[in-house]
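Assess the record.
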Amino acid sequence: MLRILVGTAAGAQDHDDDVLVLETNLDDVAGEIIGYTRQRLLEAGALDVYAIPLQMKKDRPGVLLSVICRPADRERLEGILFTETQTFGIRRHTARRTTRDRAPCTVTTPWGEVAGKLGRHAGQTVFTPEFESCAQLARQFATPLRSVYRAAEDAFRAAGEKFVERAFAMALQPVNPAADHDHSHDHDHSHDHGHDHDHGHDHGHATTHDHGTDSTQGA
């Protein structure tokens, strides 16, 4: 069984957009601080954060810490960099990026449901299982993480092109403001009301609860 979540497909209409790249060179910051700073930046809305080893003045080993973000988030993320690393300066430049159409979905593995996202560009579709969703099942059932990933990818491949087309069609639907009346539930029920058709054969159907609910989008 595969479930499609209704939401807004990031980049579904505009494949190109502008992002900011923030950079600072660090040579007097412990690795644990860099890791903690990276987590804070991602939690605060950074699209990506990465560190690259480099050689600095007087042959000191250092790190180039780079942050990719939306222009509107610059001041908040620069504040975290200044606070956590005590850097004396941050460079920034605008970069143009091309993105895939995106749509959220959920696939069912032998251990349970795995959230993932679909990406499509120039007629090519890719599926990426979400790490946290896979890791939760791996811990719960003491099974290798790679096995959960593999099962999720197999479920996607078995779904076929109709599943992909339906996912993107639903993700592109505008959210209905009248339906968004502050319900805390997301209509993500699986209709397990005594009719799950578990008669020894797998229907492999996709459920498509189109109630206008919005889902979060990835970076």
